[in-house]
Fold this protein.
Amino acid sequence: METGVPQTPNPAMEVRLWGVRGSVPTPCIENLRVGGNTACVDVVLPTGERFIFDAGTGIRNLGLAEAERPGQTDLHVFLTHFHWDHLQGLPFFQPLYSAGNTITFHSGWTAERLREVLSGQMTNPYFPVRFDLLAAEMRFEQLLEEPVGFGAAKIASFALNHPGGACGYTVDAGGARVVYATDHEHGNPEADARLLKAATGADVLIYDAQFTPDEYPSHAGWGHGTWLEATRVAKAAGVRELVLFHHDPGHTDDEMERILAEARVHFAATRLAVEWETISVVGR
Ligand SMILES: [Zn+2]
Ligand SMILES: [Zn+2]
């Protein structure tokens, strides 16, 4: 029956934002609308397959939502690097505590290094439960620039410019591309070129926009970008939508609104990463 209601095409992917803050969780009243949990997003395909990026404190809520979906036993977690704001939620990720789950961790580092870092985080005196005693079966894999198939998606990593190293990820599925590029400081020509290549033609670019251009000079070398650089990359790469991510802990909701308005002057299709929001990605 013709309803006259415009039909939206089925999304190729959905990006869910569980943690959008950088550096440290900021659960304060001035930040509640944008959100205070640290980095965690997942990408969900129409088949139900899902891929988790980073394990900041936002992964706790993701894990609680997963616990309500019986049957999902095979999870993939892709880590950009091991700074606390990308790892600190992991000990509170519910699926780790369920026998029958298989959780595969991926990063740009070797599988051995990855296992070592994750188990080092959950050890006496930092945490009461030892990593190797968790109920889920855990696997560790290295993912480099060569795209690897995960069900209906292809995922690859690329190296960013960040103290100690970090990598971004591209996710291709259903004719669409999502790029997760957080913890990157512009100004390193090789890293900037890798990012531009990864983002070229992307449907969604999630980008580290921690600082304002005014704040940046006193934070040069800290490994983070600005909203202005984000808009430049988005424009040069011809992305469909730019998502400002890894918000500074000191930026209140009101400041974030001003940042968004300024960024939109430079690149209209810009949005703020807001905790609990979902971005529908339609293939071209
Ligand atoms: Zn970070
Ligand atoms: Zn970092």
In short: The two ends are 27 Å apart (CA to CA).
